[in-house]
Design brief:
By secondary structure, the chain is an all-alpha fold. Helix 1 crosses helix 3 and helix 2 crosses helix 3. The longest helix has about 30 residues. The protein has 2 domains: about 55 residues, no CATH class; about 90 residues, no CATH class. It is elongated, with a radius of gyration of 37 Å. It has 8 helices and no strands.
Length: about 170
């Protein structure tokens, strides 16, 4: 099938007058010896003649103006600044703040001063933080799960944003 398609392409080139003289001589030989390709050549020649006679159709002179007037009838939606709900933005900001606060508390619990003195709040909370057993809860698997959940939530947020944008474009 592919070989026949390739041969038809080369025959079109022959009909259009393209190709080297050697290829044209080869097609002359094939057309004289093979009835199938002779019929194909006749078919291609008729098709080329029909296409040459038909010419290109051109739109009317007012086509562009008519299209632009039709587009002008529709009101273009004004740009809006509220693409996302404020609650979503506050929720994302809150999640980041909680994460940062947790990291700061964890870092403060790991502080060891050089002179042996620690501030009062570190002494007061460091024993309870150490006894809690953070290692059991914040291991590699837990952090991977948290990252996976965050990525899924970000993708859901992006999906909702893109759907709302698409819906507003369809309505506008």
């Amino acid at each position: 099938m592919n070989d026949e398609l390739n041969k038809e392409t080369r025959l079109w080139e022959y009909v259009d007058g393209l190709g080297t003289p050697a290829e044209r001589a080869e097609w002359d030989r094939v057309i004289q010896s093979d009835e199938y390709w002779r019929g194909k050549l006749q078919e291609f020649m008729e098709l080329k003649k029909i296409l040459g006679e038909s010419g290109l159709e051109e739109p009317s002179m007012r086509f562009t103006r008519n299209v632009m007037e039709e587009i002008g009838k529709y009101q273009v939606a004004a740009a809006t600044r509220n693409y996302l709900d404020k609650k979503i933005i506050w929720g994302i900001g809150g999640a980041f703040l909680v994460t940062i606060a947790g990291l700061v508390i964890y870092m403060l619990s790991r502080v060891r001063l050089m002179d042996g003195e620690t501030p009062g709040f570190v002494n007061r909370y460091s024993d309870s933080v150490k006894s809690f057993g953070w290692i059991r809860y914040f291991n590699g698997t837990t952090l991977e799960v948290i990252m996976l959940v965050n990525i899924m939530l970000a993708l859901l947020l992006l999906d909702g944003f893109l759907r709302n944008r698409l819906r507003s474009e369809k309505e506008g």
